[in-house]
């Protein structure tokens, strides 16, 4: 098609075999979009296209990626908030007719359906790094390194020492958004034979905290590692549930959660949800 449809925070350029999405760098643009810069989405990576009413006089054009086609969305595992969805283009309601035209044109070109056999969308390029609460994570394209912080790392991590994980030895990546309580990034070694411990005690994980490991840094990092793992011929593993935790540890975490709630750092909904999760581990 070769045409461009510009919306809030992004513009889509329609080509014969792909959609090139260019994200703005404005002050109101989500930081994840700014970090991504631009992304080329092959048409074979798209399962469908929708056009729905948005908020405050807008419409939303969205491309639905095929499961497994985009390492970024695979790593996110449905945790991205709506306004940070890189496949949404928000437009003024007055452009609905034009948006419907392009949606129809796209639908006519789509041929892919069902899960993709391999990643079709390019992952963010290495090197990448970010600062977590308990250490610094870096990825050079072939291995992931964790360097522990003396102020945040647990004694278990200090005893284990700084860590380096070759991509060839990994089975996958588990990312829990830093926008929720107890977020983390965990590497899943191929040879793991025991259930994973809690992330703050696991030398194969870094934990997030307020202001540490934000989405726009940690998610592209997780996606790049996941893509490298897949290229190395491994298969992402299903996370193994952790062992039952000590009641005293649960009580301490609930107490800490209550302090965050009283300080206004955790919403009522987040407090109730996380408290229920912790109690379920007893």
Automatic annotation (TrEMBL):
It holds the Pfam family DUF4429. Residues 12-106, 137-225 form the DUF4429 domain. Residues 252-279 form the SHOCT domain. InterPro entries: DUF4429, SHOCT. This is DUF4429 domain-containing protein. The lineage of its organism: Bacteria, Bacillati, Actinomycetota, Actinomycetes, Kitasatosporales.
């Amino acid at each position: 098609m070769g045409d461009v449809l510009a919306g809030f925070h992004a513009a889509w350029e329609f080509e014969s075999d792909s959609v090139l999405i260019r994200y703005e760098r404005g002050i109101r643009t989500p930081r994840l979009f700014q970090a991504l810069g631009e992304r080329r989405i092959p048409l074979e990576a798209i399962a469908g296209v929708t056009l729905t009413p948005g908020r405050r006089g807008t419409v939303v054009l969205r491309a639905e990626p095929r499961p497994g086609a985009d390492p970024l969305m695979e790593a996110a595992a449905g945790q991205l908030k709506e306004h940070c969805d890189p496949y949404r283009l928000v437009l003024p309601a007055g452009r609905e007719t034009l948006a419907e035209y392009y949606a129809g044109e796209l639908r006519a070109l789509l041929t892919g359906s069902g899960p993709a056999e391999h990643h079709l969308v390019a992952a963010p390029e290495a090197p990448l790094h970010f600062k977590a609460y308990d250490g610094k994570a870096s990825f050079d394209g072939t291995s992931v390194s964790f360097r522990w912080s003396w102020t945040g790392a647990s004694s278990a991590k200090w005893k284990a020492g700084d860590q380096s994980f070759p991509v060839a030895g990994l089975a996958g990546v588990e990312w829990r958004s830093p926008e929720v309580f107890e977020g983390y990034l965990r590497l899943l070694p191929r040879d793991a034979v025991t259930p994973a411990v809690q992330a703050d005690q696991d030398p194969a994980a870094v934990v997030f905290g307020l202001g540490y490991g934000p989405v726009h840094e940690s998610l592209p990092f997780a996606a790049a590692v996941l893509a490298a793992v897949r290229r190395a011929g491994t298969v992402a593993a299903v996370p193994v549930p952790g062992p039952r935790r000590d009641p005293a540890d649960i009580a301490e975490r609930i107490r800490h959660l209550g302090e965050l709630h009283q300080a206004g750092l955790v919403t009522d909904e987040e407090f109730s949800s996380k408290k229920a999760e912790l109690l379920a581990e007893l």
